[in-house]
Amino acid sequence: MNIANIVLCGLGGQGILFMTRVLAMAAMDKGLNVMGAETHGMAQRGGSVISHLRLGEVRGSLVQTGTAHLLLALEENEGYRNIPFLAKNGKMFVNTNSLHFPRQEVRAFLDKREILYRAVSAGAIALKLGAPRSPNLALLGFFSALNEEPLSHAELRQTVDKISPKKFKGINLKVFEAGYDKGKAG
Amino acid sequence: MNRQEILLGNGAIALGLVESGCQVVASYPGTPSSEILPEVVRFVKSEGLNTYVEWSTNEKVALDIAFSASITGKRAACCMKQVGLNVAADSLMSAAYLGTVGGLVIIACDDPGPHSSQTEQDTRFMARLAKVPVLDPSNPQEAREMVGLAMDISEEFRIPVILRPAIRVCHARQNISFGSIKQNNLKASFEKNPLRWAATPRFRLVLHRELNNKLKEIGDRFEKLTKFNFHNLEPGKSYPLGIIAGGVPYAVIHDILSEESRTDIPVLKISAPYPFPEGLAAEFMTACDRVLVIEETDTVIEYMLRNKEKVLGRLSGHVPPEGELVPYVIYDLVNKTLGELKLEQLNKKTDDQAKELVETLELPVRRPTLCPGCPHRASFFAIRKARPKAIFTSDIGCYTLGLNLGAVDTCLDMGAAITMAAGFYHSFAQDEIQQPIVATIGDSTFFHSGTAGLLNTVYNGARFILVILDNLTTAMTGMQPTPALGIRADGSEGTAITLERIVAGCGVDFIEVVDPYDIKKMTSVIKKATAFMSGPEGGVAVIIARHPCVIAYPEEAIPEKKKVKITDDCTECNFCLERFECPALFHDPELGHTNINREICVDCGLCIEICPKGAIVDA
Ligand code: SF4
Ligand code: SF4
Question: Which ipTM score applies to this complex?
C-alpha cells in the first residue's frame, strides 16, 4: 500500500475525533506513518466537523479533493457534502436511518465514479445498546466487516480495546461488534 | 523500537519544549494553541520534571511571566493564539529591545481560514514589527524540532524568538518518536542591570542598535539554516518556473509535486522567513524566469523578494488574498499558473463535477450552536425576554453563538462586551436617549480583560446591565480552569478568586447571582437590575448567571433529569426552533410537528419553560 487517504465527517459532538484516533493508533501500531488533521474550537459545537487521516509517506495533513480512498460519515448530509474528496473507486460508509440512501442524484454520480457506498443505522445500533453517543463505534465496526484495508477488523478491535477509557471499554466494544455483525449480515 | 505516540502538533510542540529544557511555561487558552500547555503538563508528570506551568489570566501576563523567567537565566516559553499576541504586543515590542538571558520562545498559533478566530492575521508580520526572528513549521515533527532551534537562537543571540505554527500544524496529528527528556536543573539568578532591564528612552536607542545588529547576524545564520531554508536547484540549470513556499503550504506543494513526479519545478522552502534569507532567495530567483510564492496568510516573503517582475503571488493575483490555502486551492492555482506560462500542467486535472453536484443538493448549512442543555441558552432566552429592545454587546467564547438566538449584536475582541456597552451608553446618552443595553461576557473572558472595562464603566458612569455567564470553566477552548476554581494548570490547588469580589471591588453597587436554569427567576432578576440601573442613584448592574457547563460537568449541570415530550398541542409555530434553537429540537415531517432527537437530548427540561403553547411537557 502506498498512501491511504481517509476523510471522516459528521456533526460536532458525534465522536469523530475518537473514531479518527482509533484508525490512527491502529495504523501506527501496524508500523505505518500517520498524518492527520482535526477540527477543534467553535465548529465542535454542533457544526460540520471533518477529520483527515493520511497513512504513508506524506508531509501535509489535509486530503486533496478527488483523492480519498475512504469516506466515513456519521451523518448523511455531511457525507454528501464531502463527496468531492472521494477518488474514483473510493468507498463511502454512512450512518443514516434513511431507506432512500443515497439520494437519486448522488447515486448516479457515485455509480459513474465506481464509488462503493453502504449505509448503516449506526445511531440506532448504539441507541439500542444504551450508548446514544457512540454511533461512531458502530460505524467503524460496520466498516471493519467489509474491509481488510487499510486496517482489519482485528486490528481496529484491538485499538478500541486499548484506547477506550476503562469505564467505557465494555460498552464501546459491544457497540463496535454490533456494527461489525450488521456488516457481516449484509 | 523507540516509544512512539500519535501527537497533536500542539503535543509535538510541548514535547519540543520539555526536550529543550524549558523550565517555565505560561499560556492563556485560545484555539488553535490551547492543547500545548496541557500536553506540557502531561510530559512533566510522566517524566517527573519540575517545570513550572501556569494558565495565566491573559496573554500579556503569560509573556511577562516567561520573560522574567528568561532573564533569571532559565529557558521559558509562552503559548497563545495569534490574536493573543495582540494582547501581549506591548510586552513583546519592549522585550525585543531588552533582550533575554535564558532562551525565550513565544508560540503564537495562526488560524488561516479563519476557523476559530476574529482575524486571519499573519504572526510573521508581528515578528517583523517587533524585530524578532520567526520560525514557521510545516508539520508537527518540524514544529518540535523548531522549538529546540528557537531556544538555541534565543539564548545565543539574547533575543526572543517566535514560533508560529498554523492551525494545520497545531491540530495535525502525526506519529512522533520520543527521545530522551532530561530535567534542567539550572538555578535562577538575576543580575541587576537597571540600565538594561529598566532602560530609559535614551538607552533604548542603544538597545535598538543592538537589536539591529543581532538581526543582521541571525539573518546570516538563516541563509545557511539548511534544515529549514533550502532549495533543490540543480547547479547551473535554469527553470521557467520555481515555487517559493513556507510553513503549511510547503507541505502541500511538496506532496503535490512528488505525487506528480514534477522534478522540473524547483522549490525554495523558507520556514525561517525573518530575518529574511536574502542571499538564498536571490540565488533561487536567478535560476528561475518566474517564481510563484505560496505562503499563509499574507505577503511576508513576497514583499521581501527584490526582483518583482519575476514574482507571481498575492500581489499579482495568482494566490487568493484571503482564506486558507487548502490543497485544492493550491492545486488549482499552480495549475492555472502553469497554464498561463504555457508549461505542462498537473496530471490529474481537478474536476468540479463533484463540487457542482453538492451545490445542487442544497444541503442544510450546519452552523455551530450552543450544546443541548447549555445554560447560556437559558440566559440568552431570559435576556431577550426581559429586554427585547436592547443592544446586545457580547464577547468571545461559546456564548458568541448567542447570535443565533438574536441575543448577540456585537463581538469585537476580548473584553469588548463591557467597553462597547459603555461606548454605546455614552453615545446615546449624549443625545439624551435611554438606549437599553445588555452586555454578556463569559467568566474566563471577564478574568482575561473584563476588569479594566468595568472599572472604567463605574468611573465614567455608564449604565447598562452586564451579565457574566459563569459556567465555571473556559469552555470553548477545551475546559481549562478559571481563577475562580482555585485549580492550577497542573491540577494543584490555587487560591480561588470569586467574581463577586472582583465586581464589588470595581465599585459596582448592584450584584446578583442567579441560576439561569431557573428562567423565570433569571428574567425577574434582569427586571430588577433594569429598575436599579434606571434609578436616580443607578449605575451599571451586574448579574452573575452561574450554572456549570454541560460538557465540563455533565452530572452537576443536570441534577434533575426530565424526559420531555412534545404533545399534539404543538402548532408548529417554530418559536422553540427559532428563539431557543436547542439542536435536539427539530421539525419532524412524519410526526407533523416539532419532535425531540433522543440521540442528543440531555434531558435538561429547559424547553418545557419556553413553549408558548405548553406543548412541551415532562413525560
Ligand atoms: S413545541 Fe411549542 S414552541 Fe416548538 S413549534 Fe411546537 S408549539 Fe411552537
Ligand atoms: S430537554 Fe429540551 S432543551 Fe433540554 S436538551 Fe432536550 S430538547 Fe433540548
Answer: 0.91
**Total domains in the fold of chain B:** 4
What pLDDT score does A43 carry? 60
Low-confidence residues in chain A, pLDDT < 70: 1, 41-46
Residue B22 region by backbone torsions, left for phi larger than 0, else alpha for psi between -120 and 50, else beta: beta
Omega prior to B32 cis, within 30 of 0: yes
Amino acid at B170: C
Domain's final residue, options B556, B573, B593: B556
Please say which residue of B530, B556, B582 terminates a domain: B556
**In chain A, which residues have their Cβ closer than 8 Å to the Cβ of B255?**
58-60, 64
pTM for the structure as a whole: 0.94
A43, A64, A133 ranked by CB distance to B368: nearest: A43
- Closest to B515 (Cα-Cα) out of B472, B579, B576, B480: B472
Summarize pLDDT for B334-388 with one digit per residue, the tens.
Answer: 999 999 999 999 986 567 889 999 999 988 887 888 999 999 999 999 999 999 9
Residues B282 and B344 in one domain: yes
Under 8 Å between Cβ of B169 and B138: yes
Q: Note whether B240 and B168 are same-domain residues.
A: no
Rg (CA), chain A: 15
A vs B, Cβ pairs < 8 A, gives: 154
Judgement on whether residues B513 and B548 belong to the same structural domain of the protein: yes
Residue B511 DSSP SS3:
strand
Question: Is the C-alpha dihedral spanning B599, B603, B604, B605 positive or negative?
Answer: positive
Q: Which residues pair with B393 in a beta bridge?
A: B410, B439
Joined together, the cell numbers standing for residue B541 give 448592574
